[in-house]
Each structure stands twice: as structure tokens, then as C-alpha cells.
Design goal:
80 residues, four-stranded antiparallel beta sheet, two-stranded antiparallel ribbon, 6 strands
Length: 80
């Protein structure tokens, strides 16, 4: 899969900041959700290919951004 979810992004960032940040890591399509089920501020990002998503996962998971550690996982949803 080429789609990742990003959790625990600092609340100080707006959706435009989040998009710009993830585009820097290669995301091509980004959806910022205010609330999804029990998650708040969930970001779903498509990286275009499985290798690109794998590389982004390795770089982003547990990255500390403004004293918060990002939690990045492969997206469990079928978005096709």
C-alpha cells in the first residue's frame, strides 16, 4: 500500500502546514481529518507507491515534532 496514517501531529499546525510538511516527505495526496472514530487530527497521506510509502514511514515514524512523537502506520482503510 502507498497510503499512511499520521497521528499525534502537533495541534499548533494548521492543515496547510501539515500538507506542506508531508509533501516534503513525498506525499502526493493528503487528507487532514479533524475527527475519525476515536481519533482526532488524523492525517491520511498517499505517497504514490509502496516503496515511497515505506521510505516515508521509516523517516517519519517516531519523529519528534515540537515535543510530540509522530505515530505513522500503513492505512488500514481501503481507499481505492
Amino acid at each position: 500500500t502507498s497510503v499512511l496514517t499520521v497521528k499525534h501531529f502537533p495541534l499548533i499546525f494548521n492543515d496547510g502546514d501539515r500538507r506542506e510538511f508531508l509533501e516534503h516527505f513525498g506525499a502526493t495526496r493528503i487528507c487532514c481529518l479533524k475527527r475519525y472514530q476515536n481519533q482526532s487530527n488524523l492525517i491520511i497521506a498517499d505517497f504514490g507507491s509502496s516503496p515511497a510509502a515505506s521510505q516515508a514511514l521509516g523517516r517519519l515514524h517516531q519523529l519528534e515534532v515540537l515535543h510530540r512523537r509522530l505515530l505513522v502506520e500503513y492505512c488500514p482503510l481501503d481507499l481505492a
